[in-house]
Sequence to fold (115 residues):
Amino acid sequence: QVQLVESGGGLVQPGGSLRLSCVISGGTFSAYDMGWYRQAPGSGREFVAAINWSGGSTTYYADSAKGRFTISRDNAKNTAYLQMNSLKPEDTAIYYCKASGPDYWGQGTQVTVSS
Fold:
């Protein structure tokens, strides 16, 4: 059974940084495209960033993440990362990790940006 576990969320001040991690077990990590999504209170889940399965050479970002967030993966550690810099209050949300092909979701990790 494939399982995804996110970690690294927390409370950070505006302008700060966080690094989210997503560890996958029970599957062949290198075969999955990996993505990060987020859901703010009262809003739907939205795409943040994605990275392809083949060596991680192709990445995609939502406009809100470009220039501030970086997605990466370490296939040897079965882990995907989301480095988030210059965080803003509007980045506050639950962040979810997704593996595609077929699709699996993690349980989410809370990110709160507040002074």
Summary: The radius of gyration is 13 Å. Residues 51 and 59 are 4 Å apart (CA to CA). The mean pLDDT is 94. DSSP finds no helices and eleven strands in the chain.
